[in-house]
Amino acid sequence: MSRGKCNATKPSHGQSQLLWSVSPQLVVTIIQFFEEARQITLISDGSVVYAEALWDHVTMDDQELGFKAGDVIEVVDATNKEWWWGRIMDSEGWFPASFVRLRVNQDEPMEEYLAHLEGAQAGEQSRAGLGLVLGPGLPCKEQMRTNVINEIMSTERDYIKHLKDICEGYIKQCRKRTDMFAEEQLRTIFGNIEDIYRFQRKFLKDLEKKFNKEQPHLSEIGCCFLEHQTDFQIYSEYCNNHPNACVQLSKLMKVNKYVFFFEACRLLQKMIDISLDGFLLTPVQKICKYPLQLAELLKYTNPQHRDYKDVEAALNAMKNVARLINERKRRLENIDKIAQWQSSIEDWEGEDVLSRSSDLIFSGELSKLSQPQAKSQQRMFFLFDHQMVYCKKDLLRRDMLYYKGRMDMDHMEVIDVEDGKEKDFNISVKNALKLRSLAGDQVHLLCAKKPEQKQRWLGAFADERIQVQHDRDTGFSLTEVQKKQAMFNACKSHPAGKPKAVTRPYYDFLLRQKHPSLPTALPQQQVFMLAEPKRKTSTFWHNIGRLTPFKK
Q1: What is the average per-residue pLDDT within 194-204?
Q2: Within this chain, do residues 77 and 96 fall inside the same structural domain, yes or no?
Q3: Three-point CA angle 193, 156, 133, nearest 5°
Q4: pTM here?
């Protein structure tokens, strides 16, 4: 939320008008100012200090603490200014400090404390001072909604200016220099940003139609997000390509003529003093910003407001868009890990895992019986989308695996088997499930050691089918180039003739510490810093290490 600025001296009548645009949350900030340092000290002394979540923190990283807006979090460690360690019931983890606010009165939420101040029988001077900050004419909540609406419109207009500068200031000039840039190279650097620019101009035009200039708090903009929710998915392609763009641009910036050329483009277009890689990050930041802005808008929209239901639906829609983009990005980041995993398996046969799959869903050890031989075999199973691979452990080196086969999950049905006599194999079983091919020519009986393990496997098989259908609905797939590059990288890490090194996952070390390592990614609330956050370590190998008992 942007805040107005004023001089330290007593303002004139004209200057005082600036104070009316100051966020009402400044009241809370003033109250917090002297309390916050004291409370940080209390945390370090071991005292119990609570914070209230301002926004949802959705995470797929088990090092981080997920929560919903309004949740109360016990702050355990606040020594780092960006990431704090906290606890909600039995869950602990890191969370962005910018997503919460410390309670001034540790026995009640901030809103109640502010309401208490407003309702108190204070002197006229104190009441007038509070009214000055909140502004005249509008109740606090409506003034806050006005501020959020104005921020959304302002940032959207600024964003369009950035996109225009990139398309006309950089891409247009680059295309004139065929001696320096190939079209494929430009596609790698700029991705589909021209498509995004065209879409965002249309989106802003629709927002402007719904924007009430005279009374911004009456604006009804939620429907704009709902009408364009599928259009926002074009950001997925851009976000997935962004790491490749950074690599390509980094190579060019090592050559002086490209450095001078890009700087000349910036000056010619009269752009702000931000490097090209900073401009190229703005679409990634923008798609993450929408859920935060809509959450803030919903917070200050009365349920009776005509825009309430649309804003609520828009918030869920944009969260789903961001979740879809993050999921696709995670999948693409993991394909290198899958290729490396395959290269570590001895005696591999048949096509590569990446030829059909892109995500590890579950893994673990099961006893396997297959017809016609009903001999029980201990195997490690790895369930990917579309297929399941099973391997045998080395008798001496329990962390070494030998490929033994795979099952096509697109043509298998999963059957829950009751404890007792199993008719197909004519044996007594416990904690068992059965995989039968739709053609009826294959039947595999899998037995877990404990009932809860069996239930987790049944859930995993259901998740695999859901994910396959979701990928079909959203059109997600790997390109041949991505598959080949991942396998090429894996082969380079395991040159022919050299033994394959099998190492314990890095997270095994981290989880032995008092706290896992501090996340290196900037909290989402800082998305407009125009500096690329460091990428956090993938949890792929941690999942395998956690789910797979490589060592007994």
Answers
A1: 97
A2: yes
A3: 155
A4: 0.56
